[in-house]
Specification:
This protein is α+β, with helices and mostly antiparallel strands and 373 residues long. The chain is built from 11 helices and 16 strands. The protein has 4 domains: 3-61, Nuclear Transport Factor 2, Chain: A (Roll); 92-191, 2-Layer Sandwich (D-amino Acid Aminotransferase, Chain A, domain 1); 239-305, Methane Monooxygenase Hydroxylase, Chain G, domain 1 (Up-down Bundle), CATH 1.20.58.2250; 312-357. The chain has helices spanning 3-10, 14-22, 73-80, 116-132, 177-186, 200-216, 239-249, 258-274, 279-305, 321-333, 359-368; strands spanning 26-29, 36-39, 51-54, 58-61, 68-69, 84-90, 94-101, 104-109, 135-142, 160-168, 194-199, 221-225, 234-237, 311-318, 338-346, 349-357. The strands form 4 sheets. A 5-stranded mixed sheet has the order 5-13-12-6-11. Helix 1 crosses helix 2, helix 3 crosses helix 6 (200-216) and helix 7 (239-249) packs parallel to helix 9. The structure holds adenosine-5'-triphosphate and magnesium ion (MG).
Length: 373
Amino acid sequence: MDTAGVAAALGLEPWRLEGALKRKTVFHVRDFQPPYLVFKKDVSHVERGTAVFLGEGITAVRGFPKIRRAFYLEPMVEASFGREVAVEEKMNGYNVRAFSMDGRVLAVTRGGYVCPYTTSKLAPLLEEFLAGHDYVVCGEAVGTENPYAVHRYPEAGGFAFFVFDLREKATGRALPVRERNRLLEDYGIPAVRLFGIYPREVCAREVFAILEDLASEDREGVVLKDPEMTLPPIKYTTSRTNTSDLRYAFRFPYDYGRDFFFSRIIREGYQAVEMEEDDAALRERARRLGESILLPMVETIRRVRAGENAEEEHRVRVGSLEELEALLEHLRQMGVECVLGEVWEEGEDYVAEIRRQKFRSSDKIRANLGLER
Ligand code: ATP
Ligand code: MG
């Protein structure tokens, strides 16, 4: 492997990369053509999720940066942006970076691994654009048919992709919002909804109005961005999103980090204060919050007591059984334990049910209930 070349492509000192390879902080995926490196943690300024393909040349794709969350919106907007703020919809799916490598479209998920399922869905949509523009197309894959994050969007159906960034491969630098949208429009590639570009002073107020509509449609929230994309963005979600995340995660209480729960509970406190809620609204929030914690937990404990496993159901749609096999193999490599359920034909497609196993939760609950495995 050309370690010096890879280090140079990322602006890293070679000894740092060598050290990271030895510690397996950077993982060498050898059973893919071409082989590639995945950054499992940050290495100096290079983010987790960065992937470097060792093909005809070296193709480095920088990790997608973490987006800071606002708990209490207004002062954070004041402190974080310039004259104007772009307010975009935050969609609830999974993060994808698609790009062209040796003339081929590839799609990686947040951690930096190539996902064969997502690649075959996105290649037709992005081929023409990527042939002419050497960007990383960052977007959210959403819908009800994927093995990762299921959320129903009327405009998405089973699978859809909405772009939120066009970035330079090696540096990760993003195009300004307006320029990004102009370019995407030229190619008929869907972008996430842009609600508007507002003067900073009125932005928080606009956001609370937008959130009301989003909540009523069960949509996640917003991401606030500097229109020039030179300042870091901020995310903010509806209360309904916070509680539905909790309802979901408390189905598998031992499979999520404690931070996941804590952060979502805390958000509710700040939001109630910033929205100046009266006693009735506050009690209503408390009821929703409590239910989102307790009800799913009770359901799962009952399920395990009845001898079932804690598991998460997904549905995928593929063009061939080889594609399905490749996806299952990929999930196994990611350390995801899954059981293939029913598979059936629908027109040209195969539809399959995949049940992701939540062993930590199943085992721990079984043990606490005094049941044998
Ligand atoms: P992070 O690691 O950034 O904290 P996370 O994995 O906890 O994120 P989220 O809380 O969903 O994920 O928030 C960030 C993610 O939101 C992004 O990685 C991206 O996939 C997604 N996203 C959806 N819509 C947008 C948008 N309009 N702009 C930027 N990101 C968006
Ligand atoms: Mg998300």
